[in-house]
Amino acid sequence: MITPYIVFNGECNDALEFYRSVFKCDEPKALPYGDYMPEGSKTPPELLRTWVMHAEMVICGTNVWFADEAVPVDKGGSIKLSATVPNSKEAVVVFDALSVGGEITLPPTETFYSVFHAAVTDKFGVNWNVVAEEAPKKEGTP
Fold first, then answer.
1. Which CATH superfamily includes the segment(s) 1-73?
2. What order of strands is seen across the sheet that includes strand 127-132?
3. Domain 74-142 belongs to what topology?
4. Helix H or strand E segment including 91
5. What pTM was computed for the model?
6. What is the pLDDT of residues 48-76, one digit of tens each?
């Protein structure tokens, strides 16, 4: 099993709220640094106390992990997450929500495998594909 782990630099709580609203997820399980410090660790800086040490939330049936890193985090990178939803109507809703404050990298298009495939880098720098499971209608079929 591979678990996606998305890291931020102090924006994790905002990102959790954002993804929860986009994907209509349940409340994430989250542990701030201030609630847990490993034995022998020094007290974290005050700002770090409210940052997320670890969080988990199920998005589109996949358990995704989140955290704030105490070191700078480059936005984006070499990982792209794909949100696969049942139909084009739901794909439009998710894509439009992820696009707010972000940058569209692939406008919505129909492909041989889906009526809707689009890509966006959201306002937190996370790269997303949004794909509908709904197959395109073959030419000549009603």
1. 2,3-Dihydroxybiphenyl 1,2-Dioxygenase, domain 1 (3.10.180.10)
2. 80-85, 127-132, 117-121, 103-109
3. 3.30.720
4. helix 88-99
5. 0.77
6. 778 898 999 999 999 999 988 877 777 66
